[in-house]
């Protein structure tokens, strides 16, 4: 994880140089970041949308001194509010709430007809009705984010995109630290320019799926996690937003 030291309102005496990653030995800068947030161990429980990250799991990880993370992307705003209440009933420690900040499309860009025909034949052999396309899920991001802004968890993390400047400013104004997911150095640069507090460098072996940002394939695709593992150099990022 790359740390944007200038995003921390009160970093204490240690300087946050943001030059090392979270794997291997934990740098002083990273430990300071964790201390600042009230997290004892450099362990972030992966946010997993779809139900795995129950309030009980999130609270258990936070109570054990790590950072519990609620994967809230598939939850309705009401469910997010209810899960955050449940987490707070189980722990007074900081926790993270995670959303997808991109990756939604309002309609299909490909013709699903040939695939439906193929699947219909298979369904037929099993005596099942022909498949139909499911309805497109609505993009609830704005309403989900409103709940998070009201609830003010210590950390808001996101994948698949970057919230717009207005959303980032509102998060900052509410004192919520932001962690964006990057799979490449270029994505890391974009997140830094957007003013995130820290960047989660997701490797090619990441379970489930990778939080790659939308964009043309001609962008430079040097993997950020490889850079973190190999590099002992200063951070490639220029965090352009001064601390609050
Ligand atoms: C089932 C599953 C669901 C996931 N859902 C999310 C998610 O909602 N948001 C997110 O940022 N990452 C999600 N991820 C990615 C993980 O948070 C994590 O970045 C990834 O698994 C890499 O960590 P690992 O190497 O420990 O698996 C998911 C991963 C899995 C396996």
Physical arrangement of strands within the biggest beta sheet: 1-6-5-4-3-2
What small molecules accompany the polymer chains? flavin mononucleotide
Backbone shape:
globular
Instruction: Specify the number of helices.
Output: 8
Provide the CATH top-level class: Alpha Beta
How many structural domains?
1
Report the β-strand fraction as a percent range.
5-15%
Structure characterization notes:
This protein is α/β, with parallel strands linked by helices. The protein has one domain: Alpha-Beta Barrel (TIM Barrel). Helices cover 34% and strands 11% of the residues. It contains 8 helices and 6 strands; from the N terminus they run βααβαβααβαβαβα. The protein has helices at 28-37, 55-63, 77-90, 113-125, 141-151, 165-173, 185-194, 224-230; strands spanning 2-3, 68-71, 95-100, 155-159, 177-182, 198-201. A 6-stranded mixed beta sheet has the order 1-6-5-4-3-2, sandwiched between helices. Strand 5 (177-182), helix 7 (185-194) and strand 6 form a beta-alpha-beta unit. The longest helix has 14 residues, at 77-90. The two termini are 21 Å apart. The relative contact order is 0.16. The chain binds flavin mononucleotide.
Task: Describe this protein with a few key phrases.
244 residues, alpha/beta, TIM Barrel, 6-stranded mixed beta sheet, 8 helices, 6 strands, 34% helix, binds flavin mononucleotide
List the helices and strands and how they pair.
Elements: E1 2-3, H1 28-37, H2 55-63, E2 68-71, H3 77-90, E3 95-100, H4 113-125, H5 141-151, E4 155-159, H6 165-173, E5 177-182, H7 185-194, E6 198-201, H8 224-230
The site of flavin mononucleotide has 17 residues, from loops.
């Amino acid at each position: 994880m790359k740390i944007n030291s200038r995003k921390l309102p009160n970093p204490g005496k240690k300087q946050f140089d943001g030059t090392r990653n979270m794997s291997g030995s934990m740098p002083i800068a990273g430990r300071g970041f964790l201390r600042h947030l009230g997290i004892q161990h450099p362990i972030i429980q992966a946010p997993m949308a779809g139900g795995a990250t129950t309030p009980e799991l999130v609270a258990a990880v936070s109570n054990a001194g790590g950072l519990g993370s609620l994967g809230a992307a598939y939850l309705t705003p009401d469910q997010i509010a209810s899960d955050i209440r449940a987490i707070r009933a189980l722990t007074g420690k900081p926790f993270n709430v995670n959303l997808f900040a991109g990756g939604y499309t309002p309609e299909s860009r490909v013709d699903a007809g040939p695939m439906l025909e193929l699947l219909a034949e298979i369904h037929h052999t099993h005596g099942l009705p022909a498949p139909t396309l499911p309805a497109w899920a609505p993009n609830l991001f704005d309403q989900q984010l409103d709940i998070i802004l009201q609830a003010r968890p210590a950390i808001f993390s996101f994948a698949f995109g970057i919230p717009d400047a207005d959303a980032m400013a509102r998060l900052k104004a509410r004192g919520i630290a932001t962690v964006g997911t990057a799979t490449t150095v270029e994505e890391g640069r974009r997140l830094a320019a957007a003013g995130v507090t820290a960047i989660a460098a997701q490797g090619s072996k990441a379970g489930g799926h990778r939080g790659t940002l939308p964009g043309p394939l001609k962008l430079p695709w040097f993997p950020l996690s490889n850079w973190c593992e190999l590099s002992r150099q200063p951070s490639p990022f220029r965090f352009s937003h001064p601390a609050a």
